[in-house]
Prior knowledge:
Elements (H helix, E strand, L loop, with lengths): L5 H12 L3 E5 L2 E4 H18 L6 E5 L4 H13 L2 E4 L6 H11 L3 E5 L3 H7 L8 E5 L10 E2 H6 L15 E7 L7 E6 H14 L7 E4 L11 H6 L3 E4 L5 H11 L3 E4 L1 H8 L14 E4 L6 H11 L3 E7 L2 E8 L9 H8 L4 E2 L3 E6 L12 E7 L5 E2 L3 H7 E2 L2 E10 L5 E6 L4 E3 L2 E3 L1 H8 L5 E11 L3 E10 L7 H12 L7 E4 L13 H12 L1
Parallel strand pairs: 1-11, 3-4, 3-5, 5-6, 6-7, 10-11, 10-12, 12-13, 13-14, 26-27
Antiparallel strand pairs: 1-2, 8-9, 9-19, 14-15, 15-16, 17-18, 18-21, 20-21, 21-22, 23-24, 25-26
Helix pairs in contact: 1-2, 1-3, 2-3, 4-5, 14-15
Amino acid sequence: MIRSSVGDLYDRCVDFYGPHVAITHGSRSVTYDEMGRNALSLSRAMQDLGVRQGETIAFLMANCPEYIFCEYALARIGAIRVPLAVLLSPTDHVYMMNEAGCTTLIYHHSMRERVRGMIPDLQTVKRFICIGEAGEADPGHLLLTDLMSGSPPEPAAVDIDPEDLAGIYFTGGTTGRPKGVMLSHRAWTYSYVMQMLEFGFGWHETFLFPTPLTHAGGCLMLPVLLRRGRCVIIDHFEPELFLQTVERERVTMTFLVPTMIYVLLDHPSLQEYDFSSLRNIIYGAAAIAPERLKQAVSTFGPVMTQLFGQTEAPMALTALSREEHVIDDPERERRVYASAGRATVHTELRLLDDEGQEVARGEPGEIVVRCTNMMSGYLNNPAATAETIRDGWLFTGDIGLQDDEGLLYIVDRKKDMVISGGFNIYPREIEDVLFEHPAVKGTAVVGVPHPKWGEEVVAVVCLHDGKAADEAELIAFVKQRKGSLVAPKRVLFWNGIPLTNLGKVDKKEIRARLEAAQA
């Protein structure tokens, strides 16, 4: 077993590549040495504040170099990071911090108002650290810059076992409550090794991060740094900003969700920019339309690398390399572009039927994997852990089939999760909110195919007799309570919700009706 911790890997980068630039953020550049000093000074400051090994520390921040400093610092002292996706609602953030027992919240000054509103409901957070300038932190809150500048880069030594937790990442579940995926130093170390083997990382990459570092983007930082690369950070995705940055920084590599690729392909000024430096575009987190993938290869060249995975085994269970996107035969191209690639080097993959028996090649079955970067389990949820990890195998809840070449095709999901624009959305959460509206008698939320977002969230609603509500009202109702990320894009009013003969909501029938109408 590789016994390196995440902090050890960061230390390696600093020791080997000290004077070279590690991070670019706008006009700001940070060398490996500066990254190390900031992170280790923060480690010492956190220890002096009383943070101990095994404590959970929440991150609520925009993309910035400080995210990397904080991840490095916590890994070095054995504290556990809990990244919070900024697009979720304050209610979700409060639940996650309380569930994880977070003692500290590190937040970007742009989130200050949100943090103020959450404080009365936080049960365990006792320290607040603001990323900002003097005057941008509330009274009683500490400034990250003060902690880094006021402490020596000499944290006390901590003995970290590979199975110690490095982070807790919350993901939704069929119950509607987010589940905390516990990922160890072992899981992350093997994830980084796998990424370097499967994703085509070279030396001295200039990697552009347009997606949230709290999400999939952050998983790709260390593979860049371990090969003396440079992380170029922008705080949001916007096509002009992305293309300007690629051209200016001579970006060689990036990660995009399919929706972003669609936006770039449709951008009227695309050809006015020089993106010839791009030699690798990793894409994933949602299904991509094969025709759009073909267009991307034609536009950007043979630079596309696909991944398929889930939070429980971070980043990739399967991958499709750049080389495998170059296909002369149109029929084979169509077939391969519809696939999710092959199992990664460390992944054993099986497809099982409902009785737990392996299906024949070409037959659909649940995707079940065993890999070196598997989660330790779900936080405070032994029942869900036992359901998902059985005899050392991770049951993904996705249905797929394999062809004779070993290519995997995702054909359905056992769970009702919707993936829209690269984000996981859980219908039960939306349904629960809609049922709170006094006019709603019944509802079902499903995902239907969408040319831009991959899937679109649609709510089907029937109203109580004599009650009234319109589409805009119900969308706003959900948005106010759960945030814009999970709000349905459409609300359809039906006389009744289809049910199976067992009295359950028949989502298969609902999807069939919606897709027929869409066609």
